[in-house]
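Changelog-linked ticket: zinc ion example.
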Amino acid sequence: MRATISARSASGSSRSRSWLVWGAVQVFRDSSSQLLDRELPDADRAEIVARMTSDPKVRGVHQLRTRASGPYVHIQMHADLDPELSLEEAHHVVVNAENRVLKAFPAADIIIHPDPEDRAEAHGGAFSGDDHAGD
Ligand SMILES: [Zn+2]
């Protein structure tokens, strides 16, 4: 009688142990995908570039960086603009581009750095050589 009980409880505890491990793995997976920022998929990144460059005044995009962070998406990039645009014109071009991207990614925080096309020196700190946009 005693042996039967302990065998049963042993198999029960092994079952509950694997259940606990499985549960811990799920919790870790969920929390790590929320805590660790992830780059958006290539299709989303291509969508951002397409929306940016649908205005011919935006001649290219580079150093695109995206981070999905919980419910939000952080998007930053450099946009090549006509160097002869006034600051006010460049501002309008950038705001309109930002609004086009926001239509597809309403929960986005977007930073667009305008560059005068072919006249910008390399800059951008640790990511200055990172040309992810493929332009
Ligand atoms: Zn720049």
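Closing comment: Example verified and attached. The first strand starts at residue 58 and ends at 69. DSSP finds three helices and three strands in the chain.
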